[in-house]
Amino acid sequence: MKHVAIMGYGTVGSGVYEVLTKNKEVVSKNVGEEVNVKYVLDLREFPGDPVSEVLTHNFDDILNDEEVSVVAEVMGGIEPAYTFTKKCLLAGKSVCTSNKALVEKHGAELLAIAKEKNVNYLFEASVGGGIPIIRPLHTCLTADVIEEISGILNGTTNYMLTKMSVEGADYDEVLKDAQAKGYAERNPEADVEGHDPARKIAILTSLITGKKVDFEDLYCEGITKVTPADIAYAKKMGLAIKLLATSKRIGDQYSIMVSPKMIGSAHPLFAVNDVFNAIFVKGNMLGDSMFYGSGAGKLPTASAVAGDIVEAAKVTGNTGHFWTEEKLELADISNVENKFFVRTTASAEEAKAAFGDVFVMDDVEAGEIGFVTEKMTEAAYKECAAKLNGIISMIRVEG
Ligand code: HSE
To answer: What is the value of pTM for the model shown?
Structure first.
């Protein structure tokens, strides 16, 4: 029998418990022996919940129990998750997590400890919720140089942008709705300011390059400034606004950005709506591939953690997920090229004087025009924008 422990009985933790108990038969079959949840760690009491039978308030119960070989860390946050994870790995227990903040910040160190102790630190649920992306990148797409990863990596903001587009609702209204539905994180800032997808694209890039990427070093813009007027312009052009996290290979460097982008119907991410996530991966041999599914929520995320538990319980030794503390050299985003959609109170003539040939729309919002530039670098955009008064907003246009 394999004994596992779950640290944290919040949304994801209770989901992991549910998957492991409801699907005990299939989980045990796939491991090759019975899988038993021996402990659930949480400071709270859960009267009437069957989890009470295995509930502990003491981390040492898990740490000191030699029968427990796999631990799910689904507490979230850095502490005490970091200390507990490190102690479990040092004690020779594998740890499976959905905690993207911890993976992004201390992943290199925790992976090194797992390797040294010949156990595993697995984090499928940290990116894309229930979508398998970590293991495919690590075990399948291993003969390719990955040229690009672009993703809709945040369910909350994709839900909000979809609702703004379909219903014409404004930002504050859709944020309240997303919070009421339980999509937004406790602090919505991580979602709406783009820090959550920035952490996820940092993890994916670390995984494919073997070097550490700090999300604080990335260019990151959220959706707080996207308005119904921006969406009206996008619709008029047959485009959708999506919060994209992109990591593109330029020589030996990667240029990584999180920002709202206008994309056309030919783009593989165009039709990814609501709380769904999708990750587009381009390999130099494979060409294009897409991973699509439920990117957030209790059971999709728990399913990914439980899948890692099966993997950790089944394999012997370390599976080799790894990146080092050496920082990946990031390409300067000044050289990244896009088209730019700009709204301004200036005239079409003034826009053309500043930006050259542009495509102008003057019948969407009163008292302003919107225009799309030719493809240009970020640096060139800044230079041109400095020559134009009355800029209201700018959104990048992919392609
Ligand atoms: N708040 C995140 C999202 C949860 O909306 O995608 C999953 O990481």
So the answer is: 0.96
How many Å lie between the centroid of ligand 1 and the Cα of residue 51? 25
Helix (H, G, I), strand (E, B) or coil at 81: helix
390 domain residue, yes or no: yes
Substitution site in 104, 156, 189, 276 for ligand 1 pocket (most atoms within 8 Å of beta carbon)? 156
Its domain, for residue 349, covers: 336-397
* Each residue's pLDDT tens digit, 89-131: 999 999 999 999 999 999 999 999 999 999 999 999 999 999 9
> Domain tally for the chain?
3
Nearest atom within ligand 1 for CA of residue 98: 8
Handedness of CA 375, 158, 204, 211 (dihedral sign): positive
Residue 326 lies in a domain: no
Atom of ligand 1 nearest to the CA of 183: 5
Same domain flag for 107 and 250? no
Locate 273 and state its tokens. Answer: 């709506």
Active site members = 200
Comparing C-alpha atoms, which of 377, 374, 370 is closest to residue 393?
A: 370
Render pLDDT for 294-335 as a digit per residue (tens, 0 to 9): 988 899 999 999 999 999 999 999 998 789 999 999 999 999
CATH number of the structural domain spanning residue 96: 3.40.50.720
- Which of the listed residues 185, 186, 243, 274 should we mutate to test ligand 1's pocket, taking the one with most ligand atoms within 8 A of CB? 185
Q: What is the CA(258)–ligand 1 centre distance, in A?
A: 15
Q: Provide DSSP, 111-137.
A: HHHHHHTT--EE-GGGSSTTS--HHII
CA–CA separation, 2 and 342 (whole Å): 58
CATH of the domain at 354: 3.30.70.1150
pLDDT digits (tens, 9 = 90+) for 197-227: 999 999 999 999 999 999 999 999 999 999 9
Q: In angstroms, what is the span from residue 316 Cα to ligand 1's centroid?
A: 32
Q: Tell me the CA–centroid distance for residue 197 and ligand 1, in Å.
A: 8
pLDDT digits (tens, 9 = 90+) for 24-82: 999 999 999 999 999 999 999 999 999 999 999 999 999 999 999 999 999 999 999 99
Question: Are both 279 and 379 inside the same structural domain?
Answer: no
Ligand 1 atom index nearest CA of 191 = 1
State residue 181's pLDDT score.
81
Final residue in a domain of this structure, among 293, 323, 355: 293
> DSSP state, 327?
B
Protein residues with CB under 6 Å of any ligand 1 atom: 129, 154-156, 183, 185, 191, 196, 295-296
